[in-house]
Write a structure and sequence with these properties.
Aminopeptidase, eleven-stranded mixed β-sheet, 17 strands, about 30% helix
Protein backbone atom coordinates (compact mmCIF):
# COMPACT_ATOMS: atom_id res chain seq x y z
CA UNK A 1 0.00 0.00 0.00
CA UNK A 2 1.61 3.25 -1.16
CA UNK A 3 0.91 6.53 0.63
CA UNK A 4 0.33 9.60 -1.56
CA UNK A 5 2.59 12.24 0.08
CA UNK A 6 1.00 15.11 -1.79
CA UNK A 7 -2.51 14.21 -0.66
CA UNK A 8 -1.26 13.93 2.92
CA UNK A 9 0.51 17.29 2.63
CA UNK A 10 -2.55 19.08 1.28
CA UNK A 11 -4.67 17.58 4.05
CA UNK A 12 -2.21 18.87 6.66
CA UNK A 13 -2.04 22.34 5.06
CA UNK A 14 -5.85 22.63 5.14
CA UNK A 15 -5.91 21.82 8.82
CA UNK A 16 -3.16 24.20 9.95
CA UNK A 17 -4.86 27.18 8.29
CA UNK A 18 -7.81 26.92 10.70
CA UNK A 19 -7.20 28.89 13.91
CA UNK A 20 -7.90 26.46 16.75
CA UNK A 21 -5.98 28.19 19.55
CA UNK A 22 -7.17 27.01 22.97
CA UNK A 23 -8.15 29.71 25.49
CA UNK A 24 -7.86 28.85 29.17
CA UNK A 25 -9.95 31.91 30.14
CA UNK A 26 -12.91 31.26 27.82
CA UNK A 27 -15.12 29.40 30.30
CA UNK A 28 -16.68 27.27 27.53
CA UNK A 29 -15.84 23.93 25.91
CA UNK A 30 -14.39 23.93 23.38
CA UNK A 31 -12.65 27.16 24.27
CA UNK A 32 -12.40 28.51 20.71
CA UNK A 33 -14.81 28.38 17.73
CA UNK A 34 -12.10 27.26 15.33
CA UNK A 35 -12.02 23.87 17.00
CA UNK A 36 -15.67 23.37 16.07
CA UNK A 37 -14.95 24.55 12.53
CA UNK A 38 -12.04 22.16 12.03
CA UNK A 39 -13.99 19.32 13.63
CA UNK A 40 -16.87 19.85 11.20
CA UNK A 41 -14.43 19.91 8.28
CA UNK A 42 -12.81 16.65 9.31
CA UNK A 43 -16.13 14.96 10.12
CA UNK A 44 -17.24 15.72 6.55
CA UNK A 45 -13.99 14.23 5.23
CA UNK A 46 -14.51 11.06 7.28
CA UNK A 47 -18.04 10.68 5.88
CA UNK A 48 -16.73 11.14 2.35
CA UNK A 49 -14.09 8.48 2.99
CA UNK A 50 -16.85 6.07 3.99
CA UNK A 51 -16.49 5.76 7.75
CA UNK A 52 -19.61 5.01 9.77
CA UNK A 53 -21.13 6.50 12.91
CA UNK A 54 -19.40 9.82 12.23
CA UNK A 55 -20.44 12.37 14.84
CA UNK A 56 -19.35 15.72 16.22
CA UNK A 57 -20.99 16.05 19.61
CA UNK A 58 -22.04 19.30 21.25
CA UNK A 59 -18.62 19.61 22.85
CA UNK A 60 -16.84 19.40 19.51
CA UNK A 61 -15.50 15.86 20.00
CA UNK A 62 -15.38 14.02 16.66
CA UNK A 63 -15.84 10.24 16.65
CA UNK A 64 -16.14 7.72 13.83
CA UNK A 65 -15.63 4.03 13.09
CA UNK A 66 -13.84 2.14 10.36
CA UNK A 67 -15.28 -1.40 10.62
CA UNK A 68 -12.82 -4.27 10.79
CA UNK A 69 -12.33 -6.76 7.98
CA UNK A 70 -11.42 -9.86 9.99
CA UNK A 71 -13.31 -13.15 9.88
CA UNK A 72 -13.35 -13.13 13.68
CA UNK A 73 -14.15 -10.55 16.33
CA UNK A 74 -10.93 -8.57 16.77
CA UNK A 75 -10.33 -5.96 19.49
CA UNK A 76 -11.20 -2.42 18.44
CA UNK A 77 -8.32 0.07 18.37
CA UNK A 78 -8.93 3.76 19.04
CA UNK A 79 -6.84 6.47 17.36
CA UNK A 80 -6.77 9.88 19.02
CA UNK A 81 -5.46 13.35 18.15
CA UNK A 82 -6.45 16.84 19.28
CA UNK A 83 -7.96 19.69 17.29
CA UNK A 84 -6.65 22.61 19.35
CA UNK A 85 -3.28 24.33 19.33
CA UNK A 86 -1.29 25.87 22.16
CA UNK A 87 -2.14 29.37 23.43
CA UNK A 88 1.58 30.01 23.99
CA UNK A 89 1.91 31.30 20.40
CA UNK A 90 -0.90 32.57 18.20
CA UNK A 91 -2.44 30.21 15.68
CA UNK A 92 -4.26 32.97 13.80
CA UNK A 93 -3.51 33.45 10.11
CA UNK A 94 -0.99 30.61 9.88
CA UNK A 95 0.99 30.85 6.62
CA UNK A 96 2.66 27.45 6.16
CA UNK A 97 5.86 27.40 4.14
CA UNK A 98 6.64 24.21 2.20
CA UNK A 99 10.32 23.45 1.65
CA UNK A 100 10.79 20.62 -0.81
CA UNK A 101 14.02 18.65 -1.14
CA UNK A 102 15.59 20.27 1.92
CA UNK A 103 19.27 20.83 1.14
CA UNK A 104 20.47 21.43 4.67
CA UNK A 105 21.38 24.53 6.63
CA UNK A 106 19.50 27.02 8.77
CA UNK A 107 15.98 28.10 7.76
CA UNK A 108 15.26 31.84 7.89
CA UNK A 109 11.51 32.38 8.18
CA UNK A 110 10.10 34.84 5.67
CA UNK A 111 7.55 36.63 7.84
CA UNK A 112 10.11 37.52 10.52
CA UNK A 113 13.78 37.11 9.49
CA UNK A 114 14.73 37.26 13.17
CA UNK A 115 13.14 33.83 13.53
CA UNK A 116 15.60 31.18 12.35
CA UNK A 117 15.32 27.40 12.63
CA UNK A 118 18.96 26.61 13.30
CA UNK A 119 20.57 23.24 12.70
CA UNK A 120 22.52 23.75 15.93
CA UNK A 121 19.23 23.69 17.84
CA UNK A 122 17.60 21.08 15.60
CA UNK A 123 20.25 18.39 14.98
CA UNK A 124 17.59 16.05 13.58
CA UNK A 125 17.61 18.21 10.44
CA UNK A 126 20.93 16.60 9.57
CA UNK A 127 19.09 13.34 8.85
CA UNK A 128 16.37 14.96 6.73
CA UNK A 129 18.25 16.20 3.66
CA UNK A 130 16.07 15.67 0.59
CA UNK A 131 12.89 15.63 2.64
CA UNK A 132 9.88 17.94 2.50
CA UNK A 133 9.57 20.26 5.49
CA UNK A 134 6.74 22.56 6.52
CA UNK A 135 7.49 25.62 8.64
CA UNK A 136 5.68 28.73 9.79
CA UNK A 137 6.51 32.16 8.39
CA UNK A 138 7.85 33.07 11.84
CA UNK A 139 4.84 35.06 13.05
CA UNK A 140 2.66 32.17 14.33
CA UNK A 141 3.00 28.58 15.38
CA UNK A 142 2.44 25.95 12.70
CA UNK A 143 0.00 23.67 14.46
CA UNK A 144 1.83 20.45 13.70
CA UNK A 145 0.98 19.75 17.34
CA UNK A 146 -1.39 18.13 16.71
CA UNK A 147 -2.64 18.65 13.18
CA UNK A 148 0.10 16.34 11.95
CA UNK A 149 -1.61 13.68 14.08
CA UNK A 150 -5.02 14.54 12.66
CA UNK A 151 -3.75 14.33 9.07
CA UNK A 152 -1.92 11.05 9.67
CA UNK A 153 -5.00 9.37 11.17
CA UNK A 154 -7.38 10.58 8.45
CA UNK A 155 -4.96 9.54 5.72
CA UNK A 156 -4.45 6.12 7.29
CA UNK A 157 -8.18 5.34 7.51
CA UNK A 158 -8.67 6.66 3.97
CA UNK A 159 -6.04 4.21 2.72
CA UNK A 160 -7.49 1.30 4.69
CA UNK A 161 -11.00 2.03 3.44
CA UNK A 162 -9.74 1.86 -0.13
CA UNK A 163 -7.69 -1.32 0.39
CA UNK A 164 -10.48 -3.90 0.57
CA UNK A 165 -7.96 -6.77 0.52
CA UNK A 166 -6.20 -5.69 3.73
CA UNK A 167 -7.31 -7.49 6.90
CA UNK A 168 -7.41 -5.03 9.80
CA UNK A 169 -9.00 -4.56 13.22
CA UNK A 170 -11.92 -2.14 13.77
CA UNK A 171 -10.72 1.42 14.28
CA UNK A 172 -12.43 4.02 16.48
CA UNK A 173 -11.51 7.62 15.70
CA UNK A 174 -11.57 10.21 18.48
CA UNK A 175 -10.53 13.83 17.91
CA UNK A 176 -10.57 15.90 21.08
CA UNK A 177 -10.64 19.60 21.95
CA UNK A 178 -8.67 21.71 24.46
CA UNK A 179 -5.92 19.16 25.05
CA UNK A 180 -3.40 22.00 25.33
CA UNK A 181 -5.15 23.37 28.41
CA UNK A 182 -5.60 20.01 30.08
CA UNK A 183 -9.24 19.38 29.14
CA UNK A 184 -8.88 17.09 26.16
CA UNK A 185 -10.86 14.12 27.44
CA UNK A 186 -13.30 16.00 29.67
CA UNK A 187 -16.18 15.11 27.34
CA UNK A 188 -14.94 11.87 25.78
CA UNK A 189 -17.20 8.86 26.32
CA UNK A 190 -14.40 6.38 26.99
CA UNK A 191 -16.77 3.46 27.50
CA UNK A 192 -18.61 4.43 24.33
CA UNK A 193 -15.43 4.06 22.29
CA UNK A 194 -15.62 0.36 23.13
CA UNK A 195 -11.91 -0.07 22.37
CA UNK A 196 -9.34 -2.40 23.92
CA UNK A 197 -6.50 0.04 23.39
CA UNK A 198 -5.88 3.55 22.08
CA UNK A 199 -2.97 5.37 20.47
CA UNK A 200 -2.52 9.12 20.55
CA UNK A 201 -0.78 10.50 17.48
CA UNK A 202 0.92 13.44 19.14
CA UNK A 203 4.65 12.71 19.14
CA UNK A 204 7.80 14.11 17.59
CA UNK A 205 10.01 12.73 14.84
CA UNK A 206 9.63 9.13 13.76
CA UNK A 207 9.86 5.72 15.37
CA UNK A 208 9.11 6.71 18.96
CA UNK A 209 6.57 4.97 21.18
CA UNK A 210 6.05 7.12 24.26
CA UNK A 211 5.31 4.76 27.14
CA UNK A 212 5.72 7.20 30.03
CA UNK A 213 4.70 10.79 30.65
CA UNK A 214 5.09 13.10 33.58
CA UNK A 215 2.55 12.92 36.37
CA UNK A 216 1.19 16.42 36.81
CA UNK A 217 -0.46 18.67 39.38
CA UNK A 218 -1.39 22.35 39.26
CA UNK A 219 -0.78 24.66 42.22
CA UNK A 220 -2.68 27.94 42.49
CA UNK A 221 -1.12 30.15 45.13
CA UNK A 222 -3.27 33.02 46.46
CA UNK A 223 -1.31 35.79 48.17
CA UNK A 224 -3.44 38.30 50.10
CA UNK A 225 -2.24 41.64 51.34
CA UNK A 226 -3.76 44.93 52.51
CA UNK A 227 -4.23 47.79 50.09
CA UNK A 228 -4.40 51.42 51.13
CA UNK A 229 -3.45 54.71 49.52
CA UNK A 230 0.36 54.95 49.32
CA UNK A 231 0.27 58.36 51.01
CA UNK A 232 -0.90 56.83 54.28
CA UNK A 233 0.53 53.33 53.81
CA UNK A 234 3.23 53.35 56.49
CA UNK A 235 2.80 50.36 58.81
CA UNK A 236 -0.59 49.67 57.24
CA UNK A 237 -0.06 48.44 53.67
CA UNK A 238 0.83 44.82 53.02
CA UNK A 239 1.88 44.46 49.37
CA UNK A 240 0.78 41.11 47.95
CA UNK A 241 3.04 41.54 44.93
CA UNK A 242 6.12 41.89 47.12
CA UNK A 243 4.99 38.92 49.20
CA UNK A 244 4.56 36.86 46.03
CA UNK A 245 8.10 37.81 45.04
CA UNK A 246 9.38 36.71 48.44
CA UNK A 247 7.52 33.41 48.05
CA UNK A 248 8.96 32.77 44.58
CA UNK A 249 12.42 33.61 45.84
CA UNK A 250 12.16 30.75 48.34
CA UNK A 251 11.66 28.12 45.65
CA UNK A 252 14.76 26.09 44.66
CA UNK A 253 17.23 28.19 42.69
CA UNK A 254 19.26 26.60 39.92
CA UNK A 255 17.43 23.30 40.28
CA UNK A 256 13.95 21.74 40.00
CA UNK A 257 12.97 24.05 37.13
CA UNK A 258 12.37 23.22 33.44
CA UNK A 259 15.47 25.14 32.40
CA UNK A 260 17.71 23.15 34.76
CA UNK A 261 16.33 19.62 34.36
CA UNK A 262 16.22 16.87 31.73
CA UNK A 263 15.46 13.17 31.26
CA UNK A 264 13.56 11.84 34.30
CA UNK A 265 14.08 14.87 36.55
CA UNK A 266 10.90 16.57 37.72
CA UNK A 267 10.35 20.27 38.30
CA UNK A 268 8.32 23.14 39.75
CA UNK A 269 7.41 25.75 37.13
CA UNK A 270 5.80 29.11 37.97
CA UNK A 271 4.26 30.08 34.64
CA UNK A 272 1.80 32.85 35.45
CA UNK A 273 1.38 35.69 37.91
CA UNK A 274 -1.31 38.34 38.11
CA UNK A 275 -2.87 40.68 40.63
CA UNK A 276 -2.12 43.79 42.62
CA UNK A 277 -1.36 45.05 46.10
CA UNK A 278 -4.44 43.50 47.70
CA UNK A 279 -4.15 40.06 46.11
CA UNK A 280 -1.84 38.24 43.72
CA UNK A 281 -2.16 34.80 42.16
CA UNK A 282 0.74 32.60 41.12
CA UNK A 283 0.18 29.51 38.95
CA UNK A 284 2.74 26.74 39.27
CA UNK A 285 2.85 23.37 37.53
CA UNK A 286 4.35 20.37 39.34
CA UNK A 287 5.82 17.57 37.23
CA UNK A 288 7.52 14.25 38.02
CA UNK A 289 7.68 10.74 36.56
CA UNK A 290 7.41 9.41 40.11
CA UNK A 291 3.85 10.32 41.08
CA UNK A 292 4.63 10.23 44.80
CA UNK A 293 7.15 13.05 44.33
CA UNK A 294 4.33 15.46 43.47
CA UNK A 295 3.32 15.50 47.14
CA UNK A 296 6.92 16.31 48.08
CA UNK A 297 6.89 19.26 45.70
CA UNK A 298 3.54 20.45 47.06
CA UNK A 299 4.96 20.36 50.59
CA UNK A 300 7.90 22.46 49.41
CA UNK A 301 5.43 25.12 48.21
CA UNK A 302 3.58 25.07 51.51
CA UNK A 303 6.84 25.49 53.46
CA UNK A 304 7.78 28.44 51.29
CA UNK A 305 4.35 29.97 51.96
CA UNK A 306 4.76 29.53 55.72
CA UNK A 307 8.21 31.15 55.62
CA UNK A 308 6.93 34.10 53.60
CA UNK A 309 4.02 34.69 55.98
CA UNK A 310 6.53 34.76 58.84
CA UNK A 311 8.75 37.18 56.94
CA UNK A 312 6.14 39.52 55.45
CA UNK A 313 3.94 40.55 58.36
CA UNK A 314 0.23 40.67 57.60
CA UNK A 315 0.21 38.66 54.37
CA UNK A 316 -1.79 35.48 53.96
CA UNK A 317 -0.91 32.74 51.49
CA UNK A 318 -3.11 29.83 50.44
CA UNK A 319 -1.71 26.97 48.34
CA UNK A 320 -4.28 24.83 46.50
CA UNK A 321 -3.02 21.83 44.54
CA UNK A 322 -5.20 19.89 42.10
CA UNK A 323 -4.33 16.78 40.05
CA UNK A 324 -4.02 17.15 36.28
CA UNK A 325 -2.86 13.80 34.88
CA UNK A 326 -0.76 10.78 35.81
CA UNK A 327 2.15 8.92 34.23
CA UNK A 328 0.63 6.75 31.52
CA UNK A 329 3.29 4.14 32.28
CA UNK A 330 1.41 3.35 35.50
CA UNK A 331 -1.52 2.06 33.43
CA UNK A 332 0.28 0.56 30.44
CA UNK A 333 1.71 -2.23 32.57
CA UNK A 334 -1.84 -3.63 32.70
CA UNK A 335 -1.96 -4.00 28.90
CA UNK A 336 1.50 -4.96 27.57
CA UNK A 337 0.14 -5.50 24.04
CA UNK A 338 -0.33 -1.75 23.60
CA UNK A 339 3.38 -0.95 23.26
CA UNK A 340 4.41 -4.41 22.08
CA UNK A 341 2.09 -4.34 19.05
CA UNK A 342 3.28 -0.85 18.11
CA UNK A 343 6.84 -2.19 18.21
CA UNK A 344 5.77 -5.12 16.05
CA UNK A 345 4.19 -2.79 13.48
CA UNK A 346 7.53 -1.01 13.10
CA UNK A 347 9.36 -4.35 12.84
CA UNK A 348 7.09 -5.54 10.03
CA UNK A 349 7.98 -2.36 8.15
CA UNK A 350 11.67 -3.09 8.61
CA UNK A 351 12.14 -0.36 11.19
CA UNK A 352 13.35 -0.28 14.76
CA UNK A 353 11.08 1.53 17.21
CA UNK A 354 12.29 2.94 20.49
CA UNK A 355 10.22 3.13 23.64
CA UNK A 356 10.63 6.62 25.05
CA UNK A 357 9.48 8.99 27.76
CA UNK A 358 7.89 12.39 27.18
CA UNK A 359 8.46 15.34 29.49
CA UNK A 360 4.87 16.43 29.26
CA UNK A 361 1.47 14.83 28.98
CA UNK A 362 -0.99 13.83 26.30
CA UNK A 363 -4.65 12.89 26.17
CA UNK A 364 -3.21 9.39 26.52
CA UNK A 365 -2.25 10.08 30.13
CA UNK A 366 -5.87 10.73 31.07
CA UNK A 367 -7.32 8.00 28.86
CA UNK A 368 -4.96 5.47 30.42
CA UNK A 369 -5.94 6.68 33.88
CA UNK A 370 -9.57 6.03 32.92
CA UNK A 371 -8.78 2.45 31.92
CA UNK A 372 -8.02 2.79 28.21
CA UNK A 373 -4.28 2.03 27.70
CA UNK A 374 -2.90 4.71 25.38
CA UNK A 375 0.73 4.99 24.26
CA UNK A 376 1.76 7.98 22.15
CA UNK A 377 3.21 7.64 18.64
CA UNK A 378 5.40 9.86 16.45
CA UNK A 379 3.88 12.13 13.80
CA UNK A 380 6.79 14.17 12.44
CA UNK A 381 6.19 17.33 14.49
CA UNK A 382 9.05 19.40 15.91
CA UNK A 383 9.45 22.52 18.12
CA UNK A 384 5.81 22.62 19.26
CA UNK A 385 4.16 25.77 20.64
CA UNK A 386 6.70 28.03 18.92
CA UNK A 387 7.09 30.27 15.85
CA UNK A 388 10.02 27.93 15.11
CA UNK A 389 7.69 24.94 14.85
CA UNK A 390 8.13 22.69 11.83
CA UNK A 391 6.99 19.32 10.55
CA UNK A 392 8.50 16.75 8.21
CA UNK A 393 6.18 15.31 5.57
CA UNK A 394 8.37 12.24 5.09
CA UNK A 395 8.04 11.42 8.81
CA UNK A 396 4.27 11.91 8.56
CA UNK A 397 4.25 9.33 5.75
CA UNK A 398 6.17 6.93 7.99
CA UNK A 399 3.62 7.50 10.78
CA UNK A 400 0.75 6.77 8.39
CA UNK A 401 2.39 3.50 7.35
CA UNK A 402 2.82 2.52 11.01
CA UNK A 403 -0.89 3.04 11.70
CA UNK A 404 -1.90 0.95 8.71
CA UNK A 405 0.43 -1.84 9.83
CA UNK A 406 -0.70 -1.53 13.46
CA UNK A 407 -4.33 -2.06 12.45
CA UNK A 408 -3.23 -5.30 10.79
CA UNK A 409 -1.23 -6.46 13.83
CA UNK A 410 -4.31 -6.10 16.04
CA UNK A 411 -6.33 -8.08 13.47
CA UNK A 412 -4.45 -11.18 14.57
CA UNK A 413 -5.96 -10.95 18.04
CA UNK A 414 -9.42 -12.13 19.10
CA UNK A 415 -11.63 -10.28 21.56
Amino acid sequence: MTIDPERLLQRFLRYVRVDTTADETAGVYPSSPGQLELGRMIADELRDIGLVNVEQNRYGIVTATLPGTTDHEAPAVALCAHLDTSPETTGKNVQPQVIRDYAGGDLVLSGDPQQVIRTADNPELGDLHGCTLVTTDGTTLLGGDDKAGLAVIVEAVAMLQQATDVVHAPLRICFTCDEEIGRGVDHVDVAGLNAAVCYTLDGAGAGDIDVETFSADLAIVKVRGVNIHPSIAKDRMVNAIRAAGDFLGRLPQGQQSPETTADRDGFLHPYGIEGGVAEATVRIILRDFDTEQLAVKADLLRRAATETMASVAGCEIEVNVTPQYRNLGDGLVKEPRAAAFATEAHRRLGREAQQTIVRGGTDGSLLTEQGLPTPNLSTGQHNPHSPLEWACLDEMVLATEVLIELAQVWATEES
